[in-house]
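Human: I hope this is not a bother. Would you mind checking the protein record under this note? Thank you for your patience.
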Amino acid sequence: MSQTTLEQKKLWVLVSTIKENAKEEDMQKIAPAVIDLIDDWQSKGGIMWSGSFDDNKTGMAVFAATEQDAKSLYEKYGKLCSGTLMYYLYQWDAMPILSLL
């Protein structure tokens, strides 16, 4: 891997929250597709750390990617989840609270 590629990668944070009107069936429908999306990301050498918060409605994933790859992942995620989840993509340094962790 070239040094240029490494320099272009940044940390990104994808935060998702279940919409108030979402049903359990909605979550069950999108779960396999989201798992496939993450598996595809990892099979191409990408690393992603994810977990849920105590409210059992919100989750966060942190991953390293170029801006183009992060936006592509975000678009794919949106196509899968837009009816069920509210989701936001942030660059790590745009979220100062996370830098304190």
Summary: The chain has four helices and four strands. The chain has one domain: 3-95. Residues 25 and 84 are 10 Å apart (CA to CA).
